[in-house]
Specification:
Length: about 600
């Protein structure tokens, strides 16, 4: 049985030590890590990055966004298995407001904030697409490229599925409820088997405000509270009224979706696929059933939120092409309920069933999907410890889910531990694995794969990014918060990192450590597994441990924590894609 390799064969590299505030990317002996694509680098033949962040909003529209997150590789030509030419597509999740403007200010008062700043902030969000090619032994970004593209918080998109055109989706600018401007807080992603990109809208609630002192109707109040609305990190509403809920109460219903677009067609219009439900989507992973119907798994990353699965109504015929996107418009969304005995069920979120009725506040199926969290509450799904990425093993079909942490588990007024969330005050997080007989199954078995801080081999905390490669290696990326990293109970884990796990033996080896203050999130390989790209997000986000040591970050000194990757004295830290290869040209991980 080729599946039962011994683990020294699956993981061949020598693990590296944890990094204690090193401002570099470190990989094992015999491997090379090169900075490939940084915030502000042009996607095509547009303007170069200015180290003092003086690029305009218009420049930013032609450059890599900030805060690189998940990425995917699409071979060129389309339909090939090319290992040396393709499209690299990635999310730009959010912003470091200390770094994006020249003055380092994230003050939103009228004296310092203006429409140009808002436009630049909106253009630094979204997705970027670059063309990459292996030429003369070196990977390059092709400039100019006719494929290169940015999606931002202002790109026109359509809405499809049950919520398209619903009353709750209509705004003054869009009385039909079918045309939305933009996508933001694009966390992780997915790829359909027909060759399109899926970007996931995660913490969309941090962009909208409303006057919480004003009385409003109980239904609206209940819905907004359930989606944790009320606080924004940004000030967009000052110059873009659609982010003011008092002026445009439905705009927020148009975010929190999975968005599909065809990377091979630069003119293609992105589509918000509402059948997959509205919540803080981390990523989306799929599995193909025996009869051709598909399952799409997605976690809602917030404390005590749920894991979901969407099963298509129709089968996929196995061919490529964006026309298959309509498979994402018809089907059933389920939420997971875990039992103490290791069994579990997928509970359907269907209007009229299981309490999803008018008496409980639902008007129709679109309402159930727009308020999927409230629907999952009613059917009795299991409240999880912040579900982050989900990945499907390409050979065994096992599903791995990272639960990153939940410090409130078991504290007063909150749910206590259960079998699937087995630790109160879950500081370090865990990974669970489930096994289903088919993608379309509505029952499954599950077990804890590893508890953070208690694994076999190198230790980690706060698992987030997950990816099983074609050899069956489970890559684990971590996101320890800068408020606790490199200190106290998190000291021994060091800087955020990426590890490789053997799903059969449970052995875990540390493969990569990131620079100071970063999170490691996003990993993809070429089909031959000889090229890997990994994203480094928010380097230089100030670890509190450095403040304890007297190192203070200020607008005048934004690089106190890190100035990776450029290491220029007047520079600033930049999220970036790192290219990883093996010096002998071999397969990554061996
Ligand atoms: Fe954007 Fe849950 O990480
Ligand atoms: Ca994440
Ligand atoms: Ca995270
Ligand atoms: Ca992040």
């Amino acid at each position: 049985n080729t599946m039962l390799r011994n683990h020294t064969e699956l993981l061949g590299f020598k693990p590296i030590p944890a990094a204690d505030l090193l401002d570099e990317v470190v990989v094992p002996e015999g491997y090379r890590a090169e900075v490939f694509y940084r915030w502000g680098d042009p996607i095509s033949d547009g303007p170069a990055f200015n180290m003092d962040a003086s690029n305009s909003a218009a420049d930013q529209l032609q450059q890599a966004g900030m805060h690189h997150d998940a990425l995917q590789y699409f071979p060129l030509p389309k339909g090939s298995n090319s290992n040396d030419h393709g499209l690299l597509v990635m999310n730009h999740e959010y912003l470091d407001l200390d770094l994006i403007h020249t003055d380092g200010s994230h003050d939103h008062s009228p004296e310092t904030y203006n429409a140009d700043k808002v436009a630049k902030e909106q253009n630094a969000h979204g997705v970027s697409l670059i063309e990459v090619k292996h030429v003369d032994g070196q990977w390059q970004i092709i400039r100019p490229s006719s494929y290169a593209r940015r999606l931002t918080a202002n790109t026109e998109m359509t809405v499809s599925g049950p919520a398209a055109g619903h009353e709750l989706m209509k705004t003054q600018a869009d009385p039909q409820g079918k045309k939305v401007l933009g996508t933001f807080n694009n966390c992780a992603n997915g790829k359909t088997p027909w060759g399109t990109y899926l970007t996931c809208e995660e913490n969309f609630h941090y962009y909208f405000v409303y006057d919480q002192k004003q009385p409003r109707d109980a239904d609206t109040e209940r819905r907004w509270k359930r989606y944790r609305l009320g606080f924004s990190y940004y000030g967009w509403q000052q110059f873009d009224p659609r982010f003011d809920l008092d002026k445009e109460p439905n705009e927020v219903n148009r975010f929190g979706w999975v968005v599909e677009f065809d990377p091979y067609d630069p003119q293609s219009m992105p589509v918000k696929r509402t059948a997959l439900g509205r919540f803080a989507h981390e990523n989306v992973a799929h599995k193909i059933g025996k009869d051709g119907r598909l399952a799409f798994y997605s976690g809602d990353d917030s404390r005590f939120e749920y894991i979901y699965k969407f099963i298509t109504r129709d089968a996929w015929d196995g061919t490529l092409g964006a026309r298959h996107g309509r498979l994402l418009d018809d089907g059933i969304l389920y939420a997971a309920r875990f039992e103490e005995d290791g069994s579990a069920r997928w509970l359907p979120l269907v209007f009229g069933e299981n309490g999803l009725i008018a008496e409980n506040g639902f008007v129709d199926q679109a309402d159930v999907l727009i308020h999927a969290r409230a629907a999952a509450d009613i059917v009795g799904a299991t409240k999880m410890d912040r579900p982050e990425w989900i990945t499907v093993h390409p050979h065994t079909d096992d599903v791995f889910v990272s639960l990153t942490n939940n410090s409130e588990r078991g504290s007063e007024g909150y749910p206590g531990k259960d079998a699937a969330n087995p630790r109160n005050q879950n500081l370090f997080g865990h990974i669970i694995k489930f096994s289903e007989t088919d993608a379309t199954a509505t029952e499954f078995n599950w077990q804890v794969f590893v508890l953070g801080g208690e694994g076999e081999g190198e230790q980690f905390a706060n698992p987030d990014g997950l990816y099983v490669d074609d050899r069956g290696v489970l890559w684990i990326q971590t996101d320890v918060s800068s408020s606790v990293m490199n200190d106290g109970p998190f000291k021994d884990f060091g800087n955020n990192q990426m590890l490789a796990a053997d799903p059969e033996t449970g052995e875990i080896r540390r493969f990569l450590t990131g620079p100071i203050g970063c999170e490691v999130t996003g990993v993809i390989m070429t089909p031959d597994m000889k090229t890997m790209w990994v994203n480094i997000q928010h380097p230089g986000e100030m670890p509190e441990v450095l403040e304890k040591r007297g190192i203070v970050k200020s607008p005048q000194n934004p690089t106190a924590a890190s100035n990776w990757p450029d290491h220029q004295p007047n520079g600033r830290p930049r999220s970036a894609t790192v290219l990883i290869t093996k010096e002998d040209g071999g397969v990554i991980g061996t």
